[in-house]
Amino acid sequence: MSTLAYVRAHRGLVLQWFAVLAGPVAWSAQFLVSYSVTDTGACAPAAPHFLASGGFRPVIAATSALTAAVTLVALVVSYRCWKRLRGQDPPSGERASWLAVAGMMSNGLFLLMILASFLPLAFFSRCIPSPA
After folding, report:
1. What would the mean pLDDT of 78-94 be, rounded to a whole number?
2. DSSP 130
3. Rounded to an integer, what distance in angstroms lies between the CA atom of residue 79 and that of residue 69?
4. Which stretches within 3-131 are classed as H helix?
5. pTM, two decimal places
6. Tens-place pLDDT, residues 14-28
């Protein structure tokens, strides 16, 4: 069975795992990109002129917007899965409903974290090197 055939046959399960894991993965990517760009580009003596002059703001803004959009899509997918499964999940554990609820909760939390880490851009300023 090919990968595409498996995904088509198990579409709901793939969507649920996307909904659970997309928020944490997006936040991790946003954190790593933002940290590395601001750390190397803000005040490092060997930083390129583009980043040292405050050019890191558009990079962080684009990264934050993209990861927030992915997390928001995962939140909507979780909600739609939960709404579709209400009352239809087999009572032997309700694994699918639990995954949908876990996806809504984790994506809400990670969306809040992504948006909160986007706020410090308003306070960043151009690096002013100390006199040597």
Report:
1. 77
2. P
3. 15
4. 3-9, 11-41, 49-50, 56-85, 95-118
5. 0.77
6. 888 899 999 999 999
